[in-house]
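Weekly sync notes, structure subgroup
Attendees: PM, AL, DS (notes)

Item 1: joint prediction request from the bench team. They want all two components modeled as one assembly rather than separately. Inputs as received:
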Amino acid sequence: MTDDRSEMSEDDAGDGTAARSRNSAAGDYFIPYPDQVLENVLENVLVFLKSRRDRNAVSLVCKSWYRAEAYTRSDVFIGNCYAVAPRRVTQRFRRVRSVTIKGRPRFADFGLVPRDWGAHFSPWVSTMAIAYRSLEKIHLKRMSVTDDDLAVIAHSFPTFKELILVCCEGFGTSGLAVVVSDCRRLRVLELIEDDVSDDEVDWISCFPVDIPTNLESLTFDCVESPINFDSLEKLVARSPFLKKLRLNRYISIAQLYRLIIRAPQLTHLGTGSFSPPEQQQQQQQQQNDNNRDSDFVSAFAACRGIVCLSGFREISPEYLPAIVPVCANLTSLNLSYANIDAEQLKPVIRHCHKLQVFWVLDSICDEGLQAVGATCKDLRELRVFPIDATENAEVPVSDVGLLAISLGCRKLRSILYFCQQMTNAAVIAMSKNCPDLVVFRLCIIDRYRPDHVTGEPMDEGFGAIVKNCKKLTRLAVSGLLTDRAFSYIGQYGKLVRTLSVAFNGESDIGLKYILEGCTNLQKLEIRDSPFGDSALWSGLHHFYNMRFVWMSSCRVTRQGCTNVARQLPRLVVEVFRGDGVEGGERGDFVDTLYMYRSLDGPRADAPHYVNIL
Amino acid sequence: MMHLKETELCLGLPGGGGHNQEEPLKITGKRGFSETTHLKLNFVQPNESSSSSSDVSKDTTTTLYVKSPPAKAQVVGWPPVRNHRKNVIGGKRKTEEARLVKVSMDGAPYLRKVDLKMYKSYQQLSDALANMFCSFTTGNDGRQGMMTELMKESRLMDLLNSSEYVPSYEDKDGDWMLVGDVPWQMFVDSCKRLRIMKGSDAIGLAPRAMEKCRNS
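Output from the run, pasted for the record:
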């Protein structure tokens, strides 16, 4: 579960402003070959330096250090694929083993960006195919990847080991087939929340047969097409190093059983559907139920090493207790596709004392959350998703559940919580009970909703969060908020790097507070809020330091955006309509503004409906 | 007509900005989030819902509508739950909305699936197919390379005029017909699968297509 981990957001490769060098003072003395000696020493030291931030600092010292750092950087992170051209990266960093690239803005996940907007992997892979023959790892998020791109990967990098695709699209099972058959050293293949087209290719059968594989991790739970189970079973049997296996919903619980008895060394398991195939449900309901249950229980009991459990895509809740043998060791449990209630959760959760990460549906109600609070004292991350994602639905979690969690899980660092109603009191309580919070994302689905007990705006709640949670770096707000909430955020949210605002705020001053106050702001995404040109203008001093700014359905005008673009030549200012219609505006205002700094100017692959000012 | 207005999606600005919910609602256009529209139908008068429902469920819908405060127009992308989750949760799969057909091209290594509901005309479909089959590697197979060139340079529909490749489809009756003969919507309703075949194989198709039109 790697969704949106708060990573270090400092840019690296693309930061041209960091490339300025100060002249060294070495010219004042005469030491034979001083630079070379220093560089050699430095290179040997720098090999151990992994942190991006530190590396960026190193590269600024002088030209010699810049070169040494570039020579020894093996992991390159590109936070915005349009911030820099591929060639600039490959020319600066020559010996790269691992590349991470992020593409589309996050609001694309919710349909606010048309499909063909961009973030194509092709130019990257074709440049790297020539420059990085030793490339071993590619990690992409929200990129468009084609089957052709996958073929290039398979054929260009002889020692390629790890492919991780998160929220990507554009490829299908055909491309997967090429990767698994031709990447002979493949260790990790993780497909996480991708849109994989079903080309009716049996890709699982394309792994080299009759020889053991190097596979350590195989994740395909998002692939919406049937899997050749026979091939999969044989694959698992000949993968002695396999530790992580995450199945899709086409794998029934009986098939799961057959797999896990072959792989008791698994540490991370995605269970697939966790229900019997449909024919069985009708026929064999009574027969052998007891035997089957004890079989499953013993199968799980044999997997002593499982620490992370997910899947449950079409759960038959009566099978859930089968996982009890592994609960005591679980550090991560993802039930966010499992429609279960509190009574079904309790017998399982009460064993999960070591649980640190828990994702779940609101079907467990406040009562289920109370059970979590009672047992999971070590909980660090909680995500509660809505089973019915419409407004005015009956959402059975509320301030009661939030309070219970805050009282029970004092070490909480990250929370994502969907509800229909909330109170300031519960949020304030969480801010005090969980001072270690780094990520606080509260989504009150019913828009403009005030505190449902006092009728007040939710200002004080969010204010308490930024004030009391001194390590907070990521914040998402909701409910009825006035300018006051934003003044709190600007005043206290000094470490906030990512801020999400939706259907909030009163006037321009709210955004001004943010842009003037949040000195570490990197990523700002705002939708449907009354912020206009003068608010946008107040961020001029800061936009170059940010990864991106997104404003949709706000009150910025084309002229306002143009003014910003003129003032900041290195900023790429994109204006477009979320529905892909030409023009970029809706009435008097810009529909979507997406801006980011770039070293290489505006992109050449923008579709016709994107206006770059 | 009032009912229809209520089903339209709206990206109106919040009340404080001087715009209000009474601003003419606009259709925001298809983004593939047909679920949102689908869900929205549950909020309005029961007779708007396209599926046949029992009296009991109709009553429930009306009651829900009356109990809760005036339903705000459903907005695209809200709440911020990824589509992937919306589809899979609770075991419901909203595939009934899509009109998926397989597309094969003679000699191409990959089979594709397209959702015909995503297109409104033959031109759009042809563009999409051209893009899809354009992306094959011009690798070892020289013949593939030639096909890729063809795809890149001309619209699929233009190939009807050339003797090289011809788009055809299998209809409900199991007959293979030329693409483009019938009105778009009729095509969408009757198409079961698509095949881009070599021109020489397609010679027998045209007369039968015309016959069918005459008979229908």
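Discussion: Chain A touches chain B through 60 residues (CB under 8 Å).
Action: AL to compare against the crosslinking data before next sync.
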